[in-house]
Each structure stands twice: as structure tokens, then as C-alpha cells.
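Q: Here's a chain of 243 amino acids. Please give me its 3D structure as C-alpha cells.
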Amino acid sequence: MFSQEKKRILVADDNLAVRIMLEDILSEAGYEITTAEDGQQTFDLLGREKFDLLILDLLMPHKSGFEILEWLDKQSKALTVLVLTGIFRSPKEIERLRKLGAKGYIYKSAPVEEILYRVNNVLFPISNDTRKYPRIPVNFSIEFRTNSKWHQAYTATLGGGGLFIRTVNPPEMGTRIAVKFRIPDVGKTFEAEGTVVWSNEYNPDNKKTTLPGMGIRFDVIKKEDSKEINGYIMNRLDEDHTW
């Protein structure tokens, strides 16, 4: 976890399955979670307890997410809010949510790594100077070769010094590996050689925040390719990526 003191998150959604999913993911990531099943319960909890983050569904009985946001705005409460949604993403609706103080959104169907990225980013904002190789969540097809055999998988994160590949049967740590991939919106194929520095096989008993796959450290990559990857990452970090 980022701090010895746990951050408190209120998850407000009338869908029990969504509440359970988010509580499992976020509690396993080290956060203290409270849940609310409707707008009135959300309103009551916000009135008597202090939270660091509210993850708020917009369509709830008794009080809507919009009503909660409007109340927070009128009360000038300094509470970070991420909207939990699957539909409200038009520019007009996003502008309305921004004006009401929301800091971003989480798709209900988002993968674990994206949920954690968005939550971590608003609670612990990323500075470009805090780590040598910042990482971003990004999902694209990748080919990797071990023992002269090529396989196809998908990434979960990308950094200037390496990436994470999702696969249920990753090779052991220390395995040499070659990769080929195309980054969305860049339009070229990148090739690199590296080493497996982290490996996690699929296990249904593992935490939901522990993805099966492998972390790859780039050992050999063209200088211009490394520069282009870093530029892509910095551009993504500079964007308002919680929206």
C-alpha cells in the first residue's frame, strides 16, 4: 500500500454484485471499504463519516448520483469522487459531471488493473519524477517468444523499461524473452529482448488484484523505439486520463 494509514473509500451502488466486486478488489489492494446500497444510505454515511474517495453510481433509488454530487458541491465538501458508470460518457454529460466536482469515471466492466489505476491515480497522483519508468494501463496484442516458439497474448501495463503480459502459463523468472507489439495510435511495430522479472501463474485462490502473467524488463531495444515509447507514456500521463 502507498501509506501506513489506510485510505477510506465509500462504494455506492444499488447493484450487489458491483459492490461485492469493488469491495473485494479494493480491500485486497489495501483500502478500507464501506458500501452503500442506495442514494439515501450514501447521503447518510457522507453526513456522519469521513472518506477519502467516493465511488458513485449515478442511477440509484431514493437519491441519484447526480443529487449526491449536487449536495457535495453545495456543501463545498472536499471529497474526491469517481463516477461508476457504463453509459454516461457523452461530452455534455462529462462536462456536467466535471462542473459538479467529479474527478473521473470507472466503467463497471473495467478490468482489475484499470480500476486500480484510476483509484490509485486520484488518491496518489502520479508525478512524472516519482519513478524512473512510469507505467500506464494499456491493453494491446503482443507476441512473445520463448524457446524458439512464438505465443500471442495481451498486455496489462506498459512502461519505458518493460511491460506486463497477461498469460495463464508464464515462464519462470529469469527466462530470456523476445517481444513484438504495436502500440495503439502509434502505428509501428516495436521489437525488444528482455528478461522475465516477475511471474505469476493462474491460481483461482489468488487475490483478485494479482493478475496471472509476467513482468518483462527490456534489456535490448532500439534507442529511438525506447524514446518513442516513453513519449507515448508521458503524453498519456499528461492527459486527464481519469476521464
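Q: Can you summarize the key feature?
A: The helical segments are 16-28, 39-48, 65-75, 91-99, 112-123, 223-238.
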